[in-house]
Design a protein that fits this description.
Layout (H helix, E strand, L loop, with lengths): L5 H8 L8 E4 L5 H17 L5 E5 L19 E2 L2 E2 H8 E2 L3 E9 L2 E9 L7 E2 L2 E6 L2 E4 L4 H13 L6 E6 L1 H7 L2 H8 L7 H10 L3 E3 L5 E4 H7 L14 E6 L7 E7 L3 H15 L5 E3 L2 E3 L6 H13 L11 E4 L3 E7 L18 H9 L8 H12 L6 E4 L3 E7 L9 H17 L4 E2 H8 L6 H13 L3 E3 L10 E4 L3
Parallel strand pairs: 1-2, 14-18
Antiparallel strand pairs: 2-7, 3-4, 5-8, 6-7, 8-9, 9-10, 11-13, 12-13, 14-15, 16-17, 18-19, 19-21, 20-21, 22-24, 23-24
Length: 482
């Protein structure tokens, strides 16, 4: 969190009296006082909708006159620890804090810059604090503010934090794909840089830093970075594309990381994936075509889901696409917020702001309908159903190539039956023997084979009859949870 222009920052702060997110002190030698201030300022800044809070040494609080200070963070020790190290070890969760000094008419002012937490309220030692007027009080004494703070920290997600601090206008243009932003918006870029910056800030990809520069948010970096390696907070979130020669990881052909932001680089990523899953050319009705091993819409929607709904708090792991000779696997860090049996009809997003921007830019569908459409395309091609492998820390979706009914395993047939039943239910319809035959691409004489799949699914309580009065031959079915 390097400060590019400390003088501009101090001048901007001195325009404000002490408030929820700014506190002035002349001198302070008590570490506990500083710790309580950090907790209170960080928590109050969240409630005030501020992205940073400031504790300023060397300023008279009421007049805001520059008095200078004897305080120096490099010389201030508590026990054998520097004040920096002492604070970091006693603040929970760990915050991004930075001291910077400013010389004003020969007097020294120190500014402690605090970036609030976005997961839960900040504690110093065993207590959380909040600013009430000019005082720092224990948060538990104010239940309404405590409830509001928990709600506010829940809404303030990874997207809001700064990926890069104090960038000049030229650095913003260098590090973000600005033309790509306006292309996806479907509007021409304004004629001058100030208007461009204004629109990018309105989309919350950047924000003013109070020093005459801009912070690039994680939202901006993860969507529109020209090179994600330039942003430490998202550098490990680049999409890895791995191709294998066979059905195991033993024979890897090639691996590539796509370093552009998800929105800026999605078209190129999808194009490369499609090239790797392309089948031999066919000529249909005189037209040369290159079919894909998997439905284009299914690949696109599942890939977008992996990018948008991943858990960014899991460090060291990013989305991954693995292509084998018989299947394709798309991996996303973070456990699913939705139970596997409700993955089609339930719609939730871990990263609401990221999902909203992605929808506005046309990358993903409204109300989660993309996955419904993906599974519908799988059914149209009579493919084996995808498999969703969910753990506490990841979701892996496996797409299988076209497989005839007789070659599907019993588990695949049951999964196909359940997904088909849910899709019919979502479409305000019922599953029956005929609709499931069509899903498998089977003729009417295969009635008994499909009946066996349905009977097995009923026995395992995966589906149930829409009405208990229906005879078996003409029965219709709904998911077990409907």
């Amino acid at each position: 969190m390097a400060v590019r222009n400390p003088e501009a920052l101090l001048n901007e702060l001195l325009e404000h009296p002490e408030c929820e997110w700014v506190e002035y002190k002349h001198n302070c030698v008590n570490g506990d006082v500083i710790g309580r201030c950090v907790s209170a300022l960080a928590n109050s800044a969240v409630l005030a909708g501020q992205t940073k809070a400031y504790l300023v040494f060397g300023i008279e609080d009421e007049s805001r006159m520059v008095r200078g200070t004897d305080f120096h963070p490099d010389n201030k020790k508590i026990g054998n620890e520097s004040i920096r190290h002492w604070l970091v070890n006693r603040i929970c969760p760990r915050l991004n804090v930075e001291f910077c000094d400013v010389r004003v008419n020969g007097k020294t002012v120190w500014v402690l810059i605090i970036e609030p937490a976005y997961d839960h309220p900040v504690a110093f030692g065993d207590a959380r604090y909040i600013r009430i007027g000019p005082n720092n009080r224990k948060l538990q004494e104010f239940p309404e503010k405590e409830r509001a703070l928990w709600l506010a920290t829940g809404r303030r997600g990874f997207e809001d934090a700064a990926a890069e601090h104090s960038q000049s206008q030229s650095q913003v243009f260098e590090k973000l794909d600005i033309p790509g932003f306006f292309e996806l918006k479907g509007t021409p870029a304004p004629g001058n840089e100030e208007e461009i910056i204004g629109q990018i800030a309105a989309a919350e990809l950047i924000r003013e830093d109070g020093e005459g520069g801009y912070d690039i948010t994680n939202l901006g970096a993860v969507l529109f970075a020209n090179d994600m390696k330039q942003f430490p907070s998202v550098s490990r979130k680049a999409v890895r594309l791995i191709e294998y020669s066979g059905t195991s990881k033993i024979d890897m052909k090639r691996e590539k990381e796509h370093q552009k932001g998800y929105a800026a680089g999605f078209r190129d990523l999808l194009k490369e994936v499609e090239e790797k899953i392309a089948q031999p050319e066919e000529i249909r009705e005189g037209v040369r075509t290159t079919p894909l091993a998997y439905p284009r819409d299914a690949v696109r929607e599942i890939l977008v889901n992996a990018l948008i709904h991943q858990d960014f708090s899991i460090t060291g792991a990013g989305p991954m696409v693995e292509i084998y000779s018989d299947r394709m696997e798309i991996y996303s860090p973070g456990g699913s917020l939705i139970d596997e049996d409700r993955i089609i009809d339930d719609h939730r997003s871990r990263n609401e702001k990221l999902a909203e921007v992605a929808r506005n830019l046309g990358l993903c569908e409204e109300r989660g309908s993309g996955l419904d459409r993906a599974l519908g395309k799988v059914e149209e091609m009579c493919m084996a159903p995808p498999e969703f492998l969910m753990s506490q820390n990841s979701v892996r979706v496996i797409l299988f190539q076209v497989k005839e009914f007789r070659r599907m395993t019993k588990e695949e047939k049951a999964r196909a039956c359940f997904f088909h039943c849910v899709l019919r239910w979502v479409g305000n319809d019922y599953m029956n023997n005929r609709s499931l035959r069509d899903r498998f691409g089977l003729p009417e004489e295969k009635y008994q084979s499909v009946s066996a799949v349905i009977a097995d699914s009923v026995e395992k309580n995966r589906i149930k009859r829409a009405s208990p009065d229906q005879g078996r031959r003409y029965a219709s079915y709904i998911p077990y949870w409907a």
